[in-house]
Design brief:
- The protein is mainly beta.
- Helices cover 9% and strands 70% of the residues.
- The protein has one helix and nine strands.
- The protein has one helix at residues 2-20, and strands spanning 25-39, 49-75, 78-99, 109-129, 132-154, 157-165, 173-184, 189-201, 210-222.
- The protein starts with a helix and ends with a strand.
Length: 223
């Protein structure tokens, strides 16, 4: 299903670029991504961590994203904007937890899921005038790497700092819808803020109702 969606996406992108190449403009964009899980957030890590009966707190992971995009005008205020971005996503867990195969670590243990995605959005953008823009559309993502870094300390002493490869625990392909607002300056610079709403379960076995989410703020330049 996801591979078919990716093939359809690439086909639409290729046809669109071929049809609009004489009027297309290109740009680059980079910024911050505040990503996490929607749904069973902690449950998605249960194959990697042992949770105790103590307090466990979770939070989003802040990372970077960067890439390039093309703007293909349809005429009027509407344009098509395909893109290709590297995005850091993941999740943070803190509390009484342990790493499987190791003894109990205590309340100072922390785990950070460090994920690296390739995001391929296909956006419809409307120019509302005065530089203000709104956009929305589907996004296909590929999980390139997923590491779980676990740390634990006691009285200021670092007792554990271990990173394991957790890529196989997560679904390689992800589908979401994304949308947001932007502002295009006349000198080529632009600002954007968007939200990704995941539609595919991130758990490789699809046993957990966990989905990716991300809020992104970016600074770009249109050539």
């Amino acid at each position: 299903m996801k591979k078919l969606s990716f093939i359809l996406f690439v086909t639409v992108l290729t046809v669109s670029v071929s049809a609009q190449k004489s009027t297309a403009t290109f740009g680059v964009k980079a910024g911050l991504s505040n990503a996490g899980f929607r749904g069973d957030a902690v449950g998605n890590l249960n194959n990697l961590l042992d949770f105790t009966d103590g307090m466990v707190t979770t939070s989003n992971r802040t990372g970077l994203f960067a890439g390039a995009y093309a703007t293909l005008p349809f005429g009027g205020i509407i344009s098509l904007e395909p893109g290709l971005y590297y995005t850091e996503k993941g999740y943070n867990v803190k509390g009484e937890l342990g790493l499987k195969g190791l003894e109990f670590l205590g309340a100072n243990a922390k785990a950070q899921l460090q994920q690296q995605y390739i995001d391929i959005p296909l956006l419809l953008k409307a120019d509302l005038g005065g530089g203000l823009q709104v956009f929305a559309g589907p996004q296909v993502s590929y999980l390139a790497k997923s590491n779980l870094r676990t740390t634990a300390g006691l009285l200021g002493i670092n007792l554990l700092n271990r990173t394991i490869d957790a890529t196989d625990q997560f679904n390689r392909w992800d589908m979401c819808v994304t949308g947001g607002v932007g502002y295009q300056f006349t000198n080529g610079l632009n600002l954007s803020a968007s939200y990704d709403y995941g539609l595919s379960k991130v758990d490789a076995n699809k046993n957990m109702n966990g989905y990716n989410t991300a809020f992104k703020v970016g600074l770009g330049f249109r050539f």
